[in-house]
Amino acid sequence: MTSTVTATTSRTRAEAASPRRRSWAPYLLISASVAVLLLGMGYPVIWQVVTSFQKYGAMQQLGGKAPDFVWFDNYIAIATNSTFWGVAFRSIAFCIITAVITIVIGVLLALLMSKVPGAVRLILQIALLLAWAMPVIAAMTVWIWLFDRRSGVINYLLSLIPGVDMTGFNWIGTTPVLFFLVAGLIVTWMSVPFVAFSAYAGLTQVNGEVVEASQLDGAGAWQRFRFIIFPVLKPIIAIVLLLNLIWDLRVFAQITLLQDAGPKSTDYDLLGTYIYKTGVAGFDYGGGAAMSIFVLALTIAISWFYVRSLVKEEAR
Question: Where is the ABC transmembrane type-1 domain positioned along the sequence (predicted)?
């Protein structure tokens, strides 16, 4: 018995003294994905960084002349461009408002799905899935028709209210506030299903016995949500909020299609459409690249808060 214990102890000490064997299999398995990411995303980012330091216009795009390095001139130009900063602040406000509203509606729908009978929940899930899966072009065609000032359903339904006449009212081209109200409604409608499904998946991890016990102890609906449900949903809400902030900051197709049906002024631009008009339509690829790097830096800054919280949780 003593010899067995001694042998086991010696083996344990030898294993502790020897370096731990490292398995390279996980690294080999993810190497292909990392390579695709580096090629698919790394090269465009490097190209954008290099171009942001160049005077890159139509002649350079056609290959007639090599681009000249102007170093920080493009960044100085956008830093002193009041129109760009107006668009930037408008985009930040738009993404924060739409993301918060999307999270609230999505969580409420998830709570609703957890309470309704199975048949109603299935119908609601199918409706959300169809809204989420609908192509952007098809969805925007329907939404533009709904808000059309000549034959739109929204104006028709509002005109049925006694004392209200919305005939010919232009939702898209009257003021920027109404334009972004419609745009925010569309973006929220497209994003809510993802949040609702994510939050509903998180609700399945809530301990039903704990919720029932708290209800028997007299806890109200808000108290049950705050102290039992929300702590479980908090990590999910954090990641979907981050994703929605990033997506809504870079929204492009919805704004472009609304502008095609209405005004095209910079007062109706967000960062995505303004960069496109400057870089592609305006043949100022250097300035557009500098603006894109600004959006990239802003996205990293937004993501940093979530990454830092993950690091703190891992440290605990």
Answer: 88-306
Which domain covers residue 288, as residue numbers? 89-315
3-state secondary structure of 174: coil
What burial class does residue 114 get, using C-beta atoms within 10 Å of its C-beta: 0-12 exposed, 13-18 middle, 19+ buried? Answer: middle
| Gyration radius of the chain's alpha carbons | 27
54-55 vs 68-69, strand pairing mode = antiparallel
- Of 289, 288, 286, 275, the closest CA to residue 48 belongs to 289
pTM for the whole structure: 0.84
Condensed to tens digits (0 to 9), the pLDDT of residues 180-238 reads: 999 999 999 999 999 999 999 999 888 888 888 888 878 888 888 888 888 889 889 98
Q: Where do runs of H (alpha helix) occur along 229-284?
A: 230-249, 253-260, 271-276
Amino acid at 21: R
Q: Is residue 160, in this structure, part of any structural domain at all?
A: yes
Q: What tokens were used for 18?
A: 């020897």
| Cα–Cα distance measured from residue 269 to residue 85, given in angstroms and rounded to the nearest whole number | 12
Q: Could you say which DSSP state residue 162 is in? A: T
Q: Is residue 78 part of a domain?
A: no
**DSSP element (H, E) containing 41:** none
The predicted-structure confidence for 222-279, as pLDDT tens digits, reads as follows 888 888 888 889 889 988 999 999 999 989 999 999 998 888 888 999 999 999 999 8
Distance CA 189, CA 195 (A): 11
Residue 76 lies in a domain: no
How many structural domains comprise the chain?
1
Question: Burial code of 282-302, b = ≥16 C-beta within 10 A, e = fewer?
Answer: ebbbbbbbbbbbbbeebeeeb
Amino acid at 288: G
Angle between helices 176-203 and 136-146 (to 10 degrees): 130
Q: What stretch of H or E contains 54?
A: strand 54-55
